[in-house]
Amino acid sequence: MSTKPDLTALVELTTTTQALLTQFLSTLSPPSAGSSAPSPTDQQPNIDALSLLKDASSLLKAHTTKLSLLLLNKPFTATAITRVLREITNTVIPAMMSGHQIVAVRSSAHTAPRIVEAEVRGRVRRVVSAVQEEVAETRAMAEEELQREGTGAQKPKRDALASTGLVWEACDALAELQSMGVVGLVVKKAEQWRATLLDAVEELKEWSEEEGEDDDEEDAGVGSDDEDSMDEMFGGGSDKKLPKDDKELREQLEKVLKKVKTVAVLYQALVKRRLKAYSVSAASEDKSQTEKLDQLLDILSSIPDQIDEVASAFYDLDGEEAKKVFADCCGNARKAADLVKQNWEGKDDEFTAWSAKFVEAMST
Question: Ranges of Acidic residues compositional bias (predicted)?
Answer without folding.
Answer: 208-231
